[in-house]
Amino acid sequence: MTKHTDTARSGHPIEEALRLVREILDGLADEPAWSMDAATTGRVVGLAAQVVAGVAEVEARGIAQAQALDLPGAAQCRNVARWLQQTTHVTGRTASAKARLAQSLGEHEVSRVAMARGEVHAEQVGAIATVLADLGDDVSDDDKQRAEVFLLEHATEHDADDLAGLGREIAIRLDPEGADAKEAAVLERQEERARAKTRLSMYDDTEGMTHGRFSIPALHGATLRKALAAFAAPKSVRGTQGAGSYDWQTPTPLKLGQAFVSYIERFPIKKVPKIGGLNATVNVIGDYEILQGSTTGAPSRATCVTCTTRDPGPTAARPACATLKSFAPSTTASPTPASRSRPTRCGHRDGHPHAARRGLQRPPATSHQPYPSLSSTALASSRARVASSRVA
């Protein structure tokens, strides 16, 4: 903002009026506002908005005159927005918005007069100008003027977004075919943008949790939201878990997360594409009876061959998303040769990303011990079971 300086005065009415407004505002700089009551405060805010709109219209006329006099060219600026940025020290975004407003007011006289009187502000005028520009050449000038007057009348009760919606309805009535074509083009651009910006990223925190974020098209997001709402609906939860199991009226983030897990687990494995990746293959090392649930004991451990991750605990016995490839007796102290040298779908061999390319055969990652340690009693018991099975 430029400082107040004593410069030459031309005596033009616009310049003199702005000087007078500035002097009045200078006198109000130290006037306290705490003494205003509620009614006065409301009126002051409304009057200030009208004054701001009127001053913005005068500024827009000045910007248009600067462009007509080629002041940007004299200052070696590429456009009027750049000249305005250098003159008033505003940002490029603000300067561009003011330049667009000046152009819109220059094309629509009725809107300019309404803004000069403080009846509409800059944002509303921009919405009205956009609506009139979208009407196209098939709409007559009389219909455009009627649309402008109609929107200005409703500007006292609606904001810029509402005016844009009213403008779309006007376009549908004045030019149905053109409105349909433009709406189809807008929807197509939105779909292309959604497809181009679709993202999914996940990472493990090494503490048993996987975190991620995603961006998907609105249609697929609504589908996912509907499915999760069905899993996490309080009525559904109470129906399966009993009355009093869920006190919330709407799904909580915890319930939505659990619903997402259930949604993944219930996805049919047969529908997973076989080209480009299969469901994970798991080798489980542990007591066969424990896996079958016939006896109790220490939980078995499963090593995922496809992604070289370990799933400890009871989850190993849940074939929800993985196929239990083979069961080895608890006496096994090393991976079987078949599991050690089996390549995975992603081209990895035993968890090493370059093993398949180098022709290496390496055991799974040794950052942790995937096999439980056995006592001598358990080892003897396991050997006795193996021997008896061979004799049989």
If you had to describe this structure to a student in words, what would you say it looks like?
- With 392 residues, this protein is α+β, with helices and mostly antiparallel strands.
- The chain folds into three domains: 13-29 and 38-193, no CATH class; 216-266, no CATH class; 272-372, no CATH class.
- The chain contains 17 helices and six strands.
- It has helices spanning 13-27, 38-68, 71-74, 80-88, 92-107, 109-116, 122-134, 141-154, 160-174, 176-196, 218-232, 234-241, 253-265, 288-292, 337-341, 355-358, 376-391, and strands at 199-204, 210-215, 280-285, 301-304, 310-312, 322-328.
- The strands form two sheets. Strands 5-4-3-6 form a four-stranded mixed beta sheet, with no helix packed on it. A two-stranded antiparallel ribbon has the order 1-2.
- A hairpin with a 5-residue loop joins strand 4 (301-304) and strand 5.
- It starts with 12 loop residues before the first helix and ends with a helix.
- Residues 300-306 and 316-376 have low confidence and may be disordered.
